[in-house]
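Problem 12. The chain below contains 160 residues. Write out its predicted structure in token notation.
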Amino acid sequence: MSALPVIPEPRSTSVTGRIAPQYKRSRSPRTQFEMLAWLFMRLSGIVLVVLIFGHLTVNLLVGEGIHAIDFGFVAGKWADPFWQFWDLAMLWLAMLHGTNGVRTIINDYAERDAVRFWLKVVLYAASALIIILGTLVIFTFDPCPVIDGVRHVADYCPAS
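Solution.
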């Protein structure tokens, strides 16, 4: 019988089992931020599953299904504050959940501090921009647009 192959040590550990000095990234004492980020990922994931399946059920299964989705469908849905906040919660949680996941990947794979810093700056800026623009779209969306001075009134718009 042949001997089992020897698995080499991971590159980030030394012979003593400690992290080699060149791979230590944090010079400050550990806080509970990573634990809270880990907990946020689990809790937001559960809430997102409920929000997404509710969204898919209402949009694809109730009524005429996918054939009913058009401007009027979205306008009618967003005329109700409940659906505005539902979609807002889905947007915010999905963006924060995804941003936290990408932040973790950047921490794991970006080896140089400067690269890690700038990748996170770009990530946070893009996430903030999407959250702000998405929130503005949800709350400033006019379901009864005025085109060429004529207010287009549909069944979901108040009579004017």
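Discussion. The longest strand covers residues 146-147. Students who got a different answer should revisit the alignment rule from Section 12.3.
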